[in-house]
Amino acid sequence: MKSLTIKDGSCQWNLEKVLKPQRYLWHVTTREIRFGFQRSEDPFGLRKKILKEGLICNDFEKWAIFANNGLTKPQFLFPFCIDHFAFGDGVKRIMENMIMDYDFWRIDTLLYTGEWYVDPKMEAGIKQSYTRLNKYWYLCTKNNIPPSALKLFTFKETNLDEIDKLKINFSDGAANASTNRWQDNLTPHIWKEDTLETILPTKPLIAA
Question: Measured between alpha carbons, how far is 66 from 25 in angstroms, rounded to an integer?
Answer without folding.
Answer: 9
